[in-house]
Design a protein that fits this description.
The complex is a heterodimer of chains A (253) and B (225). With 253 residues, chain A is mostly helical. Chain A has eleven helices and no strands. Chain A has a single domain, classed as MetI-like fold (Orthogonal Bundle), CATH 1.10.3720.10. Helices cover 73% and strands 0% of the residues of chain A. The radius of gyration of chain A is 22 Å and the shape is globular. The N and C termini of chain A lie far apart (66 Å). The mean pLDDT of chain A is 89. Chain B is mainly alpha-helical and 225 residues long. The mean pLDDT of chain B is 92. The chains are: A mainly alpha (253), B mainly alpha (225). At the A-B interface, helix 3, helix 4, helix 9, helix 10 and helix 11 of A face helix 3 and helix 8 of B.
Chain lengths: 253, 225
């Protein structure tokens, strides 16, 4: 005899559950999950902005002649890479508001949804920045010293050499690795569910529990993550094509 | 200013150590099973059988495109409980621990498979041809010639993945298992020293992972030719 729980595996999926009302007012479970997917995307995009800016600065720091700045960059990367994302999230959620004088009172007046959102965005942004810093650094390294020297010889200062010569090429080289970092960021954003932020993973979990339709809920959540992945890949290919430089490997003709 | 009180951490050290044992168990099981399963998947993926190769590729793509949190939810809510009850109907097992072992082993296998595939592909074709010319079967070529060299090259990458896995294992928080961080959070709740416990957990992970990654870097320097 099979255990009754085993029936779950064999039962035919019941898709009508997606049309039944969800905990969110006026939404059925389909729009409830789609709303979760939208929050996943919003969270990921905002974190990406933070990650891109700070990651670029730290990555450039690591290639600068100044030993102090390059150490700052290295320390940043080591700290943010060697603490688990989950622990970092709870540091932003429970620790920083207690310790940071200016941030704490402002943060504590926010509704809990925005507290979760702020913590998750900062955490994912600064965590991903460490990874982007490594990509930017290796992109800059791959250009060699010649272009740097040539830029200086033309009378540009270091800032101009980076902004006008090195970074425009380096970013193009690392578009594929940046894309996979963005995909990682979307996956990592599911960690925000642990502090109660109602993104896609959290919503498919609560649908699984509230409606006891485990397979339907997890399947829908998983598929939505897949769809987001595909959309990102599509845009990144388009970006890669439109920014291709002639003369580099990977450029056609 | 916040008044730190670290005293409850001292009294919680035995509990934290028990949690660390769980963390290490999950990491170790996932490394061993992940590398074994990952090797099989990588070899199958590179095999001439196009159906098996497509299945292996699908396995890798599937696990690598889903968040680890979702994988844990799948194993917790849908996959593990019925299988365990079916296999061991009478036994009184720690279901959460089995869920963690299974989820991390299957998840990490997909990451290890990619590392191992790249390692196998980095061995020159001439090696395989020479071994075949000596009369070895395909299986012997893989086992005696390709894999030993590939694994030697992959050691730093496999170890780096192990460090990532050690950090990721903290996500068993999602299924309510008391690993190192889970214990820290529980003690934080019962003693009221949330700030201290979270900072302490972060510091422990930082020191351990920094030490391990420094060792891996030294090793990498020594074995690069």
């Amino acid at each position: 005899m099979l255990d009754s729980r085993f029936d779950g595996l064999l039962a035919v999926l019941d898709f009508s559950v997606f049309l039944s009302p969800s905990p969110e007012v006026g939404a059925n479970y389909l729009t409830y999950l789609l709303g979760g997917a939208v929050w996943t995307v919003i969270l990921s995009v905002l974190s990406w902005v933070i990650a891109f800016v700070i990651g670029s600065v730290m990555g450039v720091f690591r290639t600068l002649p100044s030993p102090t700045l390059s150490k700052v960059g290295a320390c940043y990367v080591e700290i943010f890479r060697n603490i688990p994302l989950l622990v970092q999230l709870f540091i932003w959620f429970n620790v920083v508001p207690e310790l940071l004088p200016g941030f704490g009172p402002w943060y504590k007046h926010l509704p809990s949804f925005w507290q979760q959102f702020t913590s998750a965005t900062l955490c994912l942004g600064l965590f991903t920045a460490a990874r982007i810093a490594e990509q930017v650094r290796s992109g800059l390294r791959s250009l060699g010293r010649d272009q740097y020297g040539a830029g200086l010889a033309l009378g540009l200062n270091i800032r101009q050499v980076y902004n006008l010569v090195l970074l425009p090429v380096a970013y193009r080289i690392i578009i594929p690795t940046l894309t996979s970092e963005f995909l990682n960021l979307i996956k990592n954003s599911a960690v925000a569910s642990t502090i109660g932020f109602v993104e896609l993973a959290r919503r498919s979990e609560s649908m699984a529990e509230l409606k006891s339709t485990v397979f339907e809920a997890l399947l829908a959540g998983t598929l939505l993550y897949g769809v987001i992945n595909l959309i990102v890949l599509f845009f990144s290919r388009a970006l890669e094509r439109s920014t291709k430089l002639p003369g580099l490997l990977g450029a056609q003709k | 200013m916040y008044a730190f009180d670290w005293s409850s951490i001292l009294t919680s050290l035995p509990f934290l150590w028990q949690g660390m044992v769980i963390t290490l168990e999950i990491t170790l099981v996932a490394i061993v099973v992940g590398i074994l399963l990952g090797t099989i998947i990588a070899v199958v993926r590179l095999s001439k059988n196009s159906v098996l190769s497509a299945i292996a590729a699908a396995y890798v793509t599937l696990f690598r495109s889903i968040p680890l949190v979702m994988v844990l939810l799948w194993f917790q809510l849908a996959l593990v409980p019925p299988v365990v009850r079916w296999l061991f109907p009478k036994a009184n097992l720690d279901l959460n621990l089995i869920i963690a072992f299974a989820a991390f082993a299957f998840f990490e296998a997909s990451y290890y498979a990619e590392i191992i595939r790249a390692g196998i592909q980095s061995i020159s074709k001439g090696q395989a041809m020479a071994a075949q010319a000596l009369g070895m079967t395909d299986r012997a070529v893989m086992r005696l010639v390709i894999l030993p060299q590939a694994f030697r090259r992959m050691i730093p990458l496999l170890l780096t993945q192990a460090i990532i896995l050690f950090q990721d294992s903290s996500l068993v928080y999602v299924i309510g298992l008391a690993d190192f961080f889970g214990v820290a959070k529980n003690r934080a709740a019962s003693t009221g020293s949330e700030v201290e416990f979270i900072l302490f957990a972060g510091a422990v992970y930082l020191v351990l992972c920094l030490t391990l990654s420094t060792i891996v870097r030294q090793l990498q320097k020594r074995i690069t030719i």
